[in-house]
Amino acid sequence: DSGVTQTPKHLITATGQRVTLRCSPRSGDLSVYWYQQSLDQGLQFLIQYYNGEERAKGNILERFSAQQFPDLHSELNLSSLELGDSALYFCASSVAGAGGRETQYFGPGTRLLVL
Amino acid sequence: AQTVTQSQPEMSVQEAETVTLSCTYDTSESDYYLFWYKQPPSRQMILVIRQEAYKQQNATENRFSVNFQKAAKSFSLKISDSQLGDAAMYFCAYRSAGSNYQLIWGAGTKLIIKP
Q: What is the bridge-based pairing of β-strands A10-13 and A110-114?
């Protein structure tokens, strides 16, 4: 158990809908990262938050947004869902996120299926 | 841009034997970190081992060790005394030591353990 929690574990929804994925980082970790793992594109970095502020952005679609709350949990919002958004969404956390040596520890993921 | 390549989609090894998984990367940076993550059927992403580029010494973690060849940009993972529980997808990942904190992933190698 990495100490990172994600809810829900599974999500089935329809095209055009909106969903919210939730992540709680390990105790003491200030940085949260979101990754998408899909069959056709592999693992891709979406976005990083550090202590409530956006730190880095990757291949995140405009239909997707995220935020990190004062208690450091993070939410990834996916809207106008398309079939191709079906994937496993991982959250990871690390102590700081300011470069350096810290390692990212991953949650169990949320499996999203868009029908 | 940095890239990570895992040229072996699948590898198999007899239980108790040794197997080496290959990973090459491309970067113009001199300071960075390399990781091997394991993803078993549960889909959890588990850190196996980490290597700092500035360290000459190869990292080891129990039965897992790496062969880090900085000049060749090669980072292979050796698993000794393979066990059935080692069966999983193995991903090689790169992270800059600078301002870009995202992990850049290889496509993964599926490791099959034969009893």
A: parallel
